[in-house]
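Hi P.,

Sorry for the delay on this. The queue was packed all week, but I finally got your sequence through. Input first:
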Amino acid sequence: MISTMLSEKRLCELLGRVPGATLVDASREDNKLIALVVSPGFAGMEEHERQDIVWGLILDNLSDAEQGEVGYVFTNTPEEKAQAQVQGEAEAASNG
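Then the structure:
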């Protein structure tokens, strides 16, 4: 039996179809893929609406086994990503 593994590149290409996506990234943590999608189109949406968009793509385009490799997809607007980056830098500076 051949085991296929969903690559970070393939997941990023798929999530790049999110309307207005300006940044898509993925990495593997504990055998699960964690992704980030940044789109100004997420502005004004509730988190569940954002997740419906990304998981719709995942469920419609990946096999069950590949879907099982996706742990979580973070969905941010460009402003939210910038705010998170500033907060992360402030935390790093305070921790020394």
